[in-house]
Amino acid sequence: MRKNLNVIAAYSIMMMLILMVGIFQSWNIALSIFNLCLISAVMTMGANIQWGYAGLINFGIMGYTALGGLAAVLISVDPVQEAWRAGGFDILMCLWLIIVMVLVIRFILKNFEKSKLRTYSIATLIITGIIIIRVTAEPGIEKIEAVNPATTGFLGGFGLPIIFSWVVGALFAGGLAFIVGKVALGLRADYLAIATLLISEIVIAIIKHEDWLTRGVKNVIGLKRPAPYEVDLQTTDWFISFVEKFNSGKLSVIDNLADRQAALNQLVIEGSSVFVKLCYSGLFLVVVIILLILTQKALYSPWGRMMRAIRDNEEAANAMGKNVVKQHLLIFILGSAIVGIAGAMLVTQDGLFTPGSYRPMRYTFLIWVMVIVGGSGNNFGAILGGFVVWFLWIEAAPISLFLINFFTAGIPETNALKAHLIESVPYFRFLLMGLGLLFIMRYRPKGILPEKIEIK
Amino acid sequence: MDFLNAIILLLNYIFIPALTYGSQLALGAIFVTLIYGILRFANFATGDMMSFGTMATILFTWYFQSLGVSLGVLPSALIAIPFGIILMILYMLLIDKFVFKYYRNQKSPPVQFAMVSIGVMFVTQAVVRIIIGPGDRRFFDGEKFIIKAREFKDMTGLNEGLALKSTQVITIFVTIVLVSLLFWFLNRTKTGKSMKAYSDNEDLALLSGIDPKKIVLVTWVIAGILATIGGVLYGLDKSFKPFTYFNNMLPIFAAAIVGGIGNPFGAFLGGYVIAFSEILLTYAYKKFFMYILPENMEPNSLVQLLSTDYKFAVSFSILVMVLIYRPSGIFKGKVL
C-alpha cells in the first residue's frame, strides 16, 4: 500500500480534476473528457508496450488508429448490395490476384538463393502485378463509386455489431504491424521513427483516397452504436421515471405543474446524453482494466523480464540465446494491435469515420507526449499520462483564456493585442504540450510515475 | 512541330515545377542533414522551424509594404529575408541554449534528442500560430509571370504554352547561389573544414583544438539561413500555412535520407530525386502521347501511373525502399 502511494495520489488528483469539470462546467463535458481519456489510455498502453518494454520507437500510431477505425466501418455498416452486384466481382478478383502475387513471391523467396536476379524478378513481378490489378479493378471501382455516391458509393461492411470491430481492429493493426515490422524493425532507432511515421502517412493516404472501400473524405456517418440512442431514451418510460426519481428533490420545489413538466423534459434530455456517455465509459473501462491486467501480468512474467533484458542490452540478451528479432516483431505487433483496438473504440464512440481527421499531431505525437509524461515502462504511468495529457489538451483553452483575462485585466477589451491573444486561445494547447514535454524530459526524464522493477 | 509541343508540355508541367519544388526540398534537406551530421539528431521540428523563419519574413514584408518600400518587379519579401534570418537564428540559438545544450552535455542518445525536438516542434507550432494564426497567407507581390502561356504561344506559334513564374526563377536562382556558397564554405574555409572534422569524429576534432561551441553556433547560423530561405521560397511559390509546413517535414526527411543523411550534397540531390519522382509518377501523360504518337494509337485513358492523391505516398515509398535496401542513402551518408 505504502509503496503505491504516489500512484494512488496521482490517480485521485486526476479523478478530482475530472469531477471538478463535472461540477463547474457540466457532467456532459466531464464524461466526454473521461471517455477520450480512456481511449487515449489504451493507445498509450500500446505505445508503452513498444517503447517502455522493448525500447522500440513507433511513430506510426496514427496509421494503426485509422486501421482500427476502418475495422469499425467494415464490421458494422450494412453491406451495400447494389455496389456488390456492380463491382464486387472485380474487387474479389483483385483480392485473389493479390493473394496469388504474395504466394508467388513467398515461393520465390523460399526456393531461390538470394541474388540480383531474384531481386529484379520480384521487382518486375510486383510492378506488373500492380498494373494488372489496377486494370482489373478500375471498372469495378468506378461502378461501385457510381452507386448512389451521395449516401453510399462504397462496398459497405458486414453489418455485424460494432463491438466485434474492436477485435477486428486489433487484427488489422496487428497485420499491418507484421508487415511494417518485417521490413523496418532492423533500422536504427531514429530511422525507425521516421520510417514508421512515413508508413503511417501512406496508410492514411490509401484510406483517404480508396473511396470504394472507405468512402474516403466523404466520411462514413451514423455508425451503429453499442449504447442506446438519446432520442429513444427520451421516450422510454423507465428512463423518464428514473430521472424523475433521481432529481425528485429539485423537481419538488417547482409548484407549477407545467413548469415542472418542462423542467423534467430538460433534465431527461440532459440525462439521456449523460447516460449514453456512461454506457460508453463502462465499456471502455472494461477494456482498459482487461488490458491493464494482461499487461501487468506480462510485465512481471519471464517474458517481460526477457523484454527488459533485450531493451537494456540487446547483445547480451542475444548471447543468452534470446531471439531478439522475433521478440521485437512480436512486441511490435502486440503494441500496434492495442492501438488498433483504441482506434476502433474511438470510431465507435464518435459514431463516424472521418479519414481526413487523422493527423500526425493528434494521433502520433500527442500519444508520445502521453507516454513520456506518464512514465514509460510503467502501465499505470502510461494510463495516467493518457488522462493528464488529454485533460490538459481539452482544458488548455479555458485555462489559457482565464490566464489571459487575468493578466490583461487592466487593459480595455478593444486593445488589439488582447483581442489577438484571445482569438488565438486554441493554440495555447500546443504551447502547453510542448512545454510540458520539455520540462518532464528535463527534470523528470522517467515520467510522472517512473518505471520500477520489483524483484520478488 | 508535335514533337516540340510535347517537349514544351513536359517542360511546363513536369520539369520546371519539379525543379522548383526540388530546390525548396533541397534547402530543407540540407538543413536536416547538417543538424543530423553535426548535432547528431533527427530534428522533428524542421518544418515548424521553417515556418517560423517564413513567419518572421512575412512580418517584415508587411512592415516594408506599409512603409512603401518595394523592389518593383521583384517580391518585397526578398528585402525582408535577411531580417527574417536574423530572427530565425536568434530563435534557434535560444532553443539550443535552453533545450538542446543540456542534452548535448549529457551525451544523451539520439532518440532522446528526437523526443526533445518533438517538444520544440509543439512549442514552435504554438508560437507561429499564436503570432500569425493558422490561416493561409499570400505575401507575394511584384510581377507574377516572366513568360505567360499565351504570350509564349503567340511568340512561337506552338499549341502548348510555357508559363514561367517569377517565383520559379527566383527559387532556382537563389538555391543555386546559396548551395554553391554553402559548399564553398564547407570545403574551402577553415571553419567549414572543422565542421566536417567534427561531424566525422567528435573526439579527434576536440583533441585537435576545435572549439565545439563555435561549431554548434555556426551550424545553427547556417541552419537558420537555410530554413528561412527554404521556407520563404516555398511560401512565395505556393502560400504560407503553418500546417503545410509541418507536413513538408516528411518529404524533406525523405530527401535527406534518400541522399544519405549527414551528406549535404546527397541531401541537395535527394530533394530533386523526391520532387521529380513525385511529379513524374503522378502526371497524366495522355496529352504527351497524343502529341508524339500517330493519331490511331492515341490512348483512351489518362496514362497516369498513380493518382495525384498519392503524391506524398510516392516519396515515402521511395524512402522506405531506400531505408530497407540501402540505409546509408543513395549517395552514402556521413561524409559532411
Structure overview:
Chain A is mostly helical. Chain A is 76% helix and 0% strand. In chain A, α1 runs antiparallel to α2 (27-53), α2 runs parallel beside α12 (257-300) and α3 packs antiparallel against α6. Chain A starts with a helix and ends in a 13-residue tail after the last helix. With 336 residues, chain B is an all-alpha fold. Chain B has 13 helices and 2 strands, in the order ααααβαβαααααααα. Chain B has helices at residues 2-39, 46-67, 77-106, 110-132, 149-156, 166-188, 190-200, 202-207, 212-237, 242-258, 264-282, 286-292, 311-325; strands at 145-147, 164-165. In chain B, strands 1-2 form a two-stranded antiparallel sheet. Chains A and B meet through α7, α16 and α19 of A and α4, α10 and α13 of B.
Tell me the fraction of residues in β-strands of chain A, as a range.
under 5%
The best one-word shape of chain A is: globular
Helix content of chain A: over 70%
Strand percentage of chain B lies at under 5%
| Strand/helix succession of chain B | HHHHEHEHHHHHHHH
Give me the strand/helix succession of chain A: HHHHHHHHHHHHHHHHHHH
Which CATH first-tier class of chain B would you pick? Mainly Alpha
CATH architecture of chain B: Orthogonal Bundle
Into which percent range does the helicity of residues of chain B fall? over 70%
> Overall pLDDT of chain A, averaged?
89
**End-to-end Cα distance of chain B:** 47 Å
Looking at the structure, the CATH topology of chain B is: ABC transporter involved in vitamin B12 uptake, BtuC
Order of strands across the biggest sheet of chain B?
Answer: 1-2
Task: Show the largest interface.
Answer: A-B, 42 and 42 residues
Termini separation of chain A (Å)? 16 Å
What's the tally of helices of chain B?
13
